[in-house]
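Hello everyone,

My group is preparing for a crystallization screen and wants a predicted model to guide construct design. The compound we'll soak is zinc ion. Before spending weeks at the bench, it would help to have a computed complex in hand. I've included the protein sequence and the ligand's SMILES below. Output in structure-token form would be ideal because that's what our pipeline reads.
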Amino acid sequence: MTHDDERLLRRAVELAASARADGNPPFGSLLAGPDGAVLAEERNTSLTDHDITAHPELKLARWAARELDPATAAATTMYTSCQPCGMCAGAIARSGLGRVVYALSGEQLDTLKPPGSGFPDVPSEGPALFDEARVPVEGYYR
Ligand SMILES: [Zn+2]
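Reply:
Good plan to model first. Here are the tokens for the complex, ready for your pipeline.
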């Protein structure tokens, strides 16, 4: 991790504090190009927007996929105050972003929360109906 990485991570932590001050969960993130220039910043707004997906990492991954060409996305780094959750990690993987740098790990975050405050897994069933469900999918991926 370079001095520039730490500078940009500190900005992500500032955004996290700002999210909390606005009444939201304390998480912030930004995107920086290869020269360290900030391209976009976001804060968690899940409470004020009444949107469970309003994590800064997800908002930035969607922005990158929409606004950046693939080469620029691949040269872009996300700096985030905390390791992305599973939802955001999936979006980041699809966005084409080249790198993620985080401050708190998910494990470190858990030590700062009351016990049992995470989200339970939703019971799920499957696979089922393979012969029917494969019809709209077959031939799509080439
Ligand atoms: Zn997330």
